[in-house]
Design a protein that fits this description.
- With about 290 residues, this protein is an alpha/beta fold.
- It has 11 helices and 9 strands.
- The radius of gyration is 19 Å and the shape is globular.
């Protein structure tokens, strides 16, 4: 695996399997106090246009644990804020660092950055795709169930970037992905997921039930409309009763308990949410190794 990681479609099935296996190894080694210095002497730019908790911390810690130097850059700290082009920014950063990780409010910006960069670019989150989150999700499912092939994953709620990345990478791993969303907030067809507006039908027999916030950054102006449309898609005990007896609950965080997910589901014994959050670190370390190794 070489090049950029923008949507997850850059991976083959073999790439994905090897990446998840390495992530599990890195996680196990960290728990034993064993580390990897695979990126010793290198530097990675971490560009953040928006506030971040999991993405910022997991990437900064991960880069450091691999022996590299993380360089955190906020949008208003770069000359982008004064009109320098994305292409020129990519050309300059490529002369200084060995990879660029970017969280942006525009997928077009990330794509343009990759086009002009001579070092790997990793999409840490855009409104269109969140592939690093999907890697952590698959690692979590693999930990819980052993095999990914044939698992049934139901995502209920807004057909957003997380849902799109789950369809791409979940499908690549052999997971049956079902997406339930209201008509005005549905995901486009084309990645092999089963699409429906019936949350109970999506959850029926599922091994994992996944949701995300109803109002993301940038959606505040239509918050009332979103909450009204998405309320029937709340993940609670009643909805989970339609899933498999072994089903786990997933959420990419931050969560709004009482809105898209009940407190019982978020904090209860069937929640794998905190494993997901931790697994961002391990999956991204494996990704950095593969792109820069």
């Amino acid at each position: 695996m070489k090049g950029h990681f923008l949507t997850g479609e850059e991976l083959s099935r073999e790439d994905l399997a090897a990446l998840l296996e390495r992530a599990a190894d890195l996680k196990g080694g960290r728990e034993k106090g064993e580390g990897s210095e695979a990126l010793a002497g290198r530097s990675v730019a971490l560009v953040f246009e928006k506030p971040s908790t999991r993405t910022r911390v997991s990437f900064e810690v991960g880069v450091a644990e691999l022996g590299a130097t993380p360089l955190v850059l906020h949008g208003d700290e770069l000359q982008l804020a004064r009109g320098e082009s994305i292409a020129d920014t990519a050309r300059v950063l490529s002369r200084y660092v060995h990879a660029i990780v970017i969280r942006s409010g525009s997928h077009t910006i990330v794509s343009e950055l990759a086009e002009s960069s001579s070092v790997p670019v990793i999409n840490a989150l855009t409104p269109s795709h969140h592939p690093c989150q999907a890697l952590a999700d698959l690692l979590t499912l693999q930990e819980r169930f052993g095999e990914l092939e044939g698992l049934r994953l139901a995502y209920v709620g807004d057909g957003n970037n997380v849902a799109r990345s789950l369809t791409i990478l979940g499908g690549l791993a052999g997971v049956e992905v079902r997406i339930a969303s209201p008509d005005d907030y549905g995901l486009e067809d084309g990645h092999g997921a089963t699409l429906t507006n019936d949350p109970r039908a999506a959850v029926d027999g599922a091994d994992a039930v996944y949701t995300d916030v109803w109002v993301s950054m940038g959606d505040e102006s239509e918050a009332e409309r979103r909450v009204a449309a998405l309320s029937p898609y709340r993940v609670d005990a009643e909805l989970l009763s339609a899933a498999a007896d072994r089903a786990i609950v997933l959420h990419c965080l931050p969560a709004h308990p009482g809105e898209e997910i009940s407190e019982e589901m978020l904090y209860g014994e069937r929640s794998a949410v905190w494993d997901q959050a931790e697994n961002r670190l391990h999956a991204q370390k494996a990704l950095l190794e593969r792109l820069l190794g």
